[in-house]
Design brief:
Length: 125
């Protein structure tokens, strides 16, 4: 849309310049009348350009707002997804840690039992 508006603006300006030039060259009227016509035409074109600029600004502003909202929604979704994944990873790590604690406690118990058996053997021999 922006390049289309730029092309339209360029076409209007080019047309106005060419029209003014041709009008001056072939003007059958007095200089003062020609200047008045040029002034009126310039004012008319200026109003058209102002309208086109305002319209283009509104369209670009709306598109920028929509794009911002879309990006915010995507970012929020990505953060939410990452948060759930982080929770899943933490749950898995906590589960693994608990399993390792249980295995460690069993191994410590087994070592203690072996130490007691060794001490009993030494005491009875």
């Amino acid at each position: 849309m922006a390049s289309n508006s730029g092309q339209t603006l360029l076409a209007i300006l080019t047309g106005a310049a060419i029209g003014a030039g041709i009008g001056i060259l072939y003007a059958p009227d007095k200089g003062s009348k020609t200047r008045n016509k040029i002034t009126k035409e310039t004012t008319k074109r200026q109003k058209e350009l102002t309208k086109q600029l305002k319209k283009t600004t509104e369209v670009l502003g709306a598109k920028a707002k929509d794009t911002k909202l879309t990006l915010e929604q995507k970012l929020e979704g990505a953060i939410s997804s990452a948060s759930y994944k982080a929770d899943d990873v933490l749950s898995a790590l906590e589960s693994k840690l608990e399993t390792l604690r249980v295995q460690n406690a069993k191994l410590q118990k087994d070592v203690k039992v072996e130490q007691l058996k060794t001490e009993v053997k030494k005491a009875t021999s």
